[in-house]
Structure formats: structure tokens, C-alpha cells
Amino acid sequence: MGLGDLCERSPGRESLLGFQLLDLWAKNGMQVGSVAGLVSSPVAWLLSGRRRSFYNEVLPRAGCPGLVGGCALGSAAVVVAAVTSESCDLHAWASCSQDPDVDRLNRWATGGAGIGALFSSPGPGSVLFHNTPWIPRLGGGAAVGFMIGTLGALASRVRGVQRTFSAS
To answer: Hey, which end of the chain has fewer CB within 10 Å, N or C?
Structure first.
């Protein structure tokens, strides 16, 4: 029990236990943080008295800290878990990252974040947040993409959705 456990190698994997847990929990934190930031943006807009533009100011500025904050909290959770949990528990959590459903969800979410950041980048292909400074613009676009990718992965598990797309 301690931070030294993060330097162990996981059975069957080449990477260190700490890297596996950090990868898993940071991605989970970003998924939760981006959704929480974007869902809380209407409340922040109403609290501002609707003086600010929802689309260009509030939405990207709520999504960006949600994404970054979720990653930071996921990373901090790894350190807290290493200090408070036994080594066998850490290895069990790391084995969750090898689950095909978790891997699929992380791939969809990460791909969505990349596409969202690409669609919000300045230039002729820009679709999201035209009048926003570049850091909240890219972070907000990545948060929107992360949320859409996560929701897409979750929706594609539903049998009705699978039947609809397999029939077409």
C-alpha cells in the first residue's frame, strides 16, 4: 500500500500499473467532467443574467474546465487510491482497463474529443465557437466531442439502435 505500488508491472501487460490506472481514470474523469461542465452551462448562463452569449462564451468556457478538471480529478484519484488501497485492489482496477467495453468507450470518447477540437480550431473548417478565444474554443470543442463520442458509444450498445443501423 503506497505510491511504490504504482511502479509495479501488471501481469500480462508491458506498462506500469500507474500508467494503466492513470490512463483509465483520467479518461473516465474527462468523460464525467466534460458532461458535467456542458450540462452545467445553462445554469451558469442563467446565473449570469443571460448577459453573455450562451454559444460563444458560456458553453466553451464551461466545457473546457470540465474536461481539464475531470482529467485532474481522475489523476488525483489514482494517487489517493495508491495511498489508501491494497496492491491487489489496484491490479483489479487496472484489469478493468482491459475490458473490451471500457476500451471501446474510451476509443469512441477520445475520437470524439479529437474531432470536436478539430471542428473548433480556427480556420476555414471551423464549425464550433467562431467568436471565442482559442483555449476555451479548443477545450470546449474537445468537451463537446468527448460528450458526443461517449453518448454515441453508450447509444450503440442499445439493441434498438443496433437494429436500426444494421437494417440500413
So the answer is: C
Q: What is the Cα–Cα distance from 54 to 142, expressed in whole angstroms?
A: 17
User: What pLDDT was estimated at residue 12?
Assistant: 65
For 10-40, give one letter per residue: b (16+ CB within 10 A) or e. beeeeeebbbbbbbbbbbbbbbbbbbbbbee
Q: Which residue has the cell 483520467?
A: 26
The residue type at 126: S
Q: What is the pLDDT of residues 33-52, one digit of tens each?
A: 988 998 999 998 898 888 88
How long, in residues, is the chain? Answer: 168
3-state secondary structure of 12: coil
d(CA 129, CA 24): 29
Q: What are phi and psi of 160, to 5 degrees?
A: -65, -40
Give residue for cell 467495453.
101
CB crowding 115-125: b at 16 or more within 10 Å, else e:
bbbbbbbeeee
Query: Exposed/middle/buried for 126, CB within 10 Å: 0-12, 13-18, 19+?
Result: middle
The residue ranking higher by pLDDT, 87 or 150, is: 150
pTM, full prediction: 0.80
Q: What residue has cell string 505510491? A: 3
